Every structure is written in C-alpha cells, then in structure tokens.
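quick one if you have a minute, typing this from the bus. theres a chain ive been looking at and ive put its sequence and its fold in token form underneath. please have a look and point out which stretches look like helix strand or loop to you. anything you notice is useful, everything is just below.

***
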Amino acid sequence: MTRILAAALLALAAGRAPAQSIEREIANLEHQIAQAIVKNDAAFVASVFADDFYYTGVRGEIKKKSDIVNELKSGDLKFELLQFDDIKVRHQGDTAIVTGLAITKGTSPQGPISGQFRYTRVYVKRQSAWQLILFQGTPVATPPPAASPPG
C-alpha cells in the first residue's frame, strides 16, 4: 500500500494525472465531440481536431480536418443521433488510443451513415490539451439470417 501511495504521489508531483483521470477526461471528450457533431458545432470540432487530423471513414473515404469542419458548416454532414458507447481508453504518456461503438443516424456527402460502427481514435496531448489526430471507423457486421431447417 505504501508503494502504491508513493507512486501516485510521485506521478502527481511530476505533473502527470493518474491513469483513471486521463481515461475519464478522454471519455468525456468523446461525448463532447458527439454532442458537437449533432449540434453542427464546427468551432468545437475545429478546436479538438488537430490540424494534421486524418479520417478513414466507414466506406473507406479519407478526410482531413478541413473536410469535416466544412461539411459541418455547410450542413452536408448532419446527424440526428451520434452516440459513443463501450469506450475503452489506453494511454501512454501524451498519447491516448480510444476504441468504442458508435450508434448513428445521419447523412454525409457520401450518403446515409446509420447503424453501428466500431471505431478507433488516437489523441495526442499538445500544449496541455488533447487533440484528435486519427479516426478509423468500421461497420459492425450483421450476422447472416439463420438457415431454414431442411424439410
């Protein structure tokens, strides 16, 4: 117990937040991003997405920060529902990797974006703020219909 307390105090003294605090901070940021996108809050998205942000979408499309921000501003990217669940955060130093499940109902210039998608995001802490630098989305496979029994 004394070693754990000493390690926690050393981490705090070194200016590093405990792991659970970082995980909560990133999970909270995930929910803020979802709310901002539903509200078409391009300014918030622009503040969190890094200038070197890179997106590989659920159809294999590739976008940069400016693409996402411009689509939000124009209304070309519109969500009625964007919910992130099953969020798992792993971090090492100033890098955090997030995996989760997105439940969506919306449209993009490429067409409807509705259903469930697994995603991976990478954040980097720059100048005391977490910035999203990478996003990859993958549709959740639906199981095939059950085969009819012979007969």
Q: What stands out?
A: The domain at 17-139 is CATH 3.10.450.50 (Nuclear Transport Factor 2; Chain: A,).
